[in-house]
Amino acid sequence: MTSFIVYKRYFCTRTDISTVQTAPGLNLDQDKTMSISSNEILAVPHQRKSKNSQHKQALYDRTHDLVVLTRILIVGVLVLTYIYSNQVQTMINLLWNILLTSAIYNSVYFETWFTTFCYAFIIAIYPFVLHYIKPFEKYKIHQSVTYQHQSVLYLVWKAILYMAPLATMDTFIVKKYHGVQPDVWVEKRVDWIQTSRALPEMPPTVLQLIVHLIGSVLLFDLIFFFIHFSLHRNFWLYKTFHRYHHDHDVLHPHVTDQLTVTERLALVLSANFALKCFNSHPLTRTFFVPVFVFLLVENHTGYDIPLGIHRIIPFGILSGPVKHYNHHVNGERNYQPFLNYMDYIFIK
Q1: For residues 214 and 208, what is the distance between their CA atoms, to the nearest angstrom?
Q2: What is d(CA 301, CA 141) in angstroms, rounded to the nearest whole number?
Q3: 265 to each of 114, 163, 244, 277, how far by Cα in Å?
Q4: How is residue 200 annotated by DSSP?
Q5: Rounded distance between C-alpha atoms, residue 169 and residue 272, angstroms
Q6: Is 139 left (phi over 0), alpha (psi -120 to 50) or beta?
């Protein structure tokens, strides 16, 4: 039986054949040379597609009309939002007035709680549904992809690990939002312990909400590229902070939060910095959280479904689960969380 020799470094997987991708079942973090039989290698020459690839392409071809229809619906919603912008603004104003009276929303811990809730909600429904509804099985990127159940105690422990450092910062740092008078911040600094946020009285406009939301996602994607790229290209950084994220036998959605405390803080603070750069309104930040969490979880599902966001948005602008799966398999390229244009600039 033909064998391939695969060399694994801490921060990058190499092979002696450029067209060979290692199967995700392999332990890619062993610090030694491994001999792997050919049935453990996904050898996919560029000049010919496997029957499985051809079958999957046929599936996507059959759903192409559905994807086009979805795009038309999204464009239609955007056009209607523009036409009826006054009515939409009225709803935003009403929502903001309701949130201003909410003790939970005014709490300094709201965004930490809300992010944890969104992650628990999304990962409990979206990947779970993909795993247990049989028709979706054919959209697995690789047959090893699965949904690995976690115990309730383990999930609670992970939530505590996530919230503890952020809640500590929430307690002692005065949150500054655009639209709030500086003298309010000065007044809040008198108290060492922060319990409530100073929120702006006016809501964002429809245009501000949309532009700042999209802009913040794109800016975060760019910022985290440099962090992620550095973690893979520096031996010490990879071993110390990022290796844990790649320490899995198969890709599954819970890998999304399989992060060291340092990397998790880098992720969250990068997102917060991107929002700050746009002076994003607290309501925009609230909409940002589920979008941000959903995109991260979807990247780690291991499913390439026809109505995935990366397929709905045309021209391959978004990387999507396939390219992120390849990143976890090979440890190379696709360092941006959502897009991939930086690969063409920095990686040859």
Answers
A1: 10
A2: 9
A3: 16, 10, 15, 18
A4: -
A5: 13
A6: alpha
pLDDT tens digits, 4-63:
233 333 444 433 333 334 434 334 443 433 333 334 434 344 444 455 666 666 767 778
User: How many other C-beta atoms can be found within 10 angstroms of the C-beta atom of residue 296?
Assistant: 19
> How many CB atoms are located within 10 Å of the residue 171 CB?
13
Model confidence, pTM? 0.82
221: which residues sit within 8 A by CB, 6+ positions away? 336, 337, 338, 339
In 3-state terms, what secondary structure has residue 123?
helix
Q: Which tens digit of pLDDT belongs to each residue from 167-203?
A: 999 999 999 999 999 999 889 989 999 999 999 999 9
Token digits of residue 314:
């045309």
Query: What angle separates helix 282-299 from helix 320-330, to the nearest 10 degrees?
Result: 60
Tokens standing for residue 18: 């450029």
Rounded Cα distance between 144 and 142, Å, is: 5
How many CB atoms neighbour CB 208 within 10 A?
18
Residue 32, class by beta-carbon neighbours within 10 Å (0-12 exposed, 13-18 middle, 19+ buried)?
exposed
Q: How far apart are CA 227 and CA 275, in angstroms?
A: 17
Estimate to the nearest angstrom the gap between the alpha carbon of 29 and the chain centroid: 23
DSSP classification of residue 35: E
Rg of the Cα trace of the chain? 22
Strand spans (E) along the chain: 3-8, 13-15, 20-22, 34-37, 41-43
Structure-block tokens of residue 54: 């051809």
Under a CB-based contact definition with an 8 Å cutoff, are residues 194 and 188 in contact? Answer: yes
Bridge partner residues of 200 (DSSP): none
* HSE-CB of 214 using CA atoms within 13 angstroms: 5
**Residues 63-98 as b or e (16 or more Cβ within 10 Å = b):** beeebeeeeeeeeeeeeeeeeeeeebbeebeeebee
Q: What average pLDDT is seen over the chain?
A: 83
